[in-house]
Amino acid sequence: RDRQFIKECASSIAVPTFAPKSGVKIAVTEAEAEAQNNDDDDCGDRADQILAELNSNMDKLRALNVQVADFEKDDDANFHIDFITACSNLRAACYRIPSANKYKTKLIAGKIIPAIATTTAVVAGLVSIEMY
Question: What is the pTM of this model?
Answer without folding.
Answer: 0.47
